[in-house]
Amino acid sequence: MMSHAANPILVEATRGSMVESFHRGRYVVMKADGTVVAEGGDIDALMYPRSAIKPLLAIPLVESGAADAFKLEDKHIALACSSHNGEEEHANTVKAWLEHIGLSVEMLECAPHYSIHPPAGIKQAGDQITLTKAHNNCSGKHSGFLTTAQHLGDTPAGYINESHPVQQRLIKVLEEMGDCDLSSTPRGIDGCGIPVIGMRLRDLGLAMARMADPSGLDAKRIEAIKRIRKGCAAAPFMVAGTGRFCTGIMEECGEDALVKVGAEGVYCAAFPKQGLGVALKIDDGTQRGAEVAMGAILRQHGVIDDAKAEKLKKYLTPVLTNWAGKYAGDMRPAF
Amino acid sequence: MMSHAANPILVEATRGSMVESFHRGRYVVMKADGTVVAEGGDIDALMYPRSAIKPLLAIPLVESGAADAFKLEDKHIALACSSHNGEEEHANTVKAWLEHIGLSVEMLECAPHYSIHPPAGIKQAGDQITLTKAHNNCSGKHSGFLTTAQHLGDTPAGYINESHPVQQRLIKVLEEMGDCDLSSTPRGIDGCGIPVIGMRLRDLGLAMARMADPSGLDAKRIEAIKRIRKGCAAAPFMVAGTGRFCTGIMEECGEDALVKVGAEGVYCAAFPKQGLGVALKIDDGTQRGAEVAMGAILRQHGVIDDAKAEKLKKYLTPVLTNWAGKYAGDMRPAF
Questions:
Q1: What value of ipTM does the predicted structure carry?
Q2: From the candidates B142, B189, B280, B326, which should be mutated to test the interface with A, based on the most A CB atoms within 10 A?
Q3: pTM of the model
Q4: Which residues, 6+ apart, have CB-to-CB distance to B303 below 8 Å?
Q5: Which domains, ranges and CATH numbers included, belong to chain B?
């Protein structure tokens, strides 16, 4: 299923005068017509897109008319596309959103956890905050699912199961956007309980290229994609949170870079100005590898120029420090 | 410096019906006479041994007579070899140890952090514990350094610098045990502030083989090594802590398996019954990769039999779950 031929080294971690660790992976940069602009490794092998496809999964929320019917704002669209930190601002916004559409956090089918941003998690523990399902890093996506279900009259319960109309719509969108048949590809379960669908990296790249350049799609989808891109650019904190790569890049680049992380070393991006989509997967599943590789792609395709790169240094080539905060090494791209 | 030829896949992470991520690396299993019993990847390339060599770094503490002079117990020897969780029991034992030898936690030159065992860290935050340097996961090793310095009359301050007698003794021990010249290999800084010394994986394997079978060494070193092995086996909680691979394996295997993790995907082991030493490094630096690879080596060389393997399943082939605790996939060896 998965090719065991070695993919190229995309990222190195140095310590002192030596490369200590490194990350192999595969990536594709594509145009909406299917042209491959840049690639590395086996782009035809399957992968699980994980949360990196949340902007694609938000399409039914907008396209169905649910977002308009419930007068959702940019922050809600951004949350629907998010893997947020579970900071109080995220959880509170999700809670208010669900109440606004006549539902409640108890209807979310994801499990609570402390904020994945360590200082925020420590503060929540110190403040003895009662965690709710709204603190789950995927609660915004789930709220988007519930909003769509509510608008279209689906029974909300069980919305995380593959047979539920919510999930069926998502698979259809992925197939349409990636121009692929996902009916018999591998299945798994995601951290938040929804199915993950095996997909070729190349097909995911095409889907993201169409997010960047939807001109060949029908009018309703074009409009939905533009609204999703605008929502994320307008509320980048809601897409991730304090200290996060997705938020930092989008705060600086606005609509020029829709970037979204997924678990196990996945990253997706859409660059509307260049009309390019990106999909990448680090073999070993590490987020640090995926971020630095995505940073290099943002640089290589002109989305981040030298001036922006200087400001975004801590995301593009993060420094490794010890517990005392002293410099120990660097993360750097190797392709 | 580091070879870029692909090392073999040692560990796979599955999700549903697919391998989602995998970890390449290199390992060597050796006898004390230098014979290689098993190997994978480039064992002659350099690596940083990180904390996996703490049992070797404890040799001067015992060999110098410091451990006897201060009547150290097994728990102190185990702490000297530890990368502990920073749970209260670890921090309190370190504090009492330093006071017992006439020093204090303030003399430690490592930085405090919340417990690296998430439930313990959350509890510390909730209880508003004041963190001290004794909570640093390397505080036991540092206390061993201070004890040796105190016994031999070194000025304690600056004991983390390479020029300090404490560090010079450690480099000498590594050179003797690994039969290698480390005078001009790469240098870096560790998470706790001490120097890390570039070493060939093969030489580290030899040093660990001599920990397993020290019969060719001088009497004082043989005695020191036996005491270190006994101390770790008698107090495995102190070597790591709740939920940790090192602790779990040693609780079950006792003196048959001295196993020690290091940062960036390093693991070392000594199997006295088989007279074998092990050194392994996962290319990408992930701990999950290193643990599952070490688990396979423990199985392959008869240290863990079928009955023990059943009990130790959660360490050897851990299950991946989602936030709700539902099964999502497996970690498994691939060599």
A1: 0.96
A2: B189
A3: 0.96
A4: B253, B256, B257, B271, B273, B274
A5: 28-284 (3.40.710)
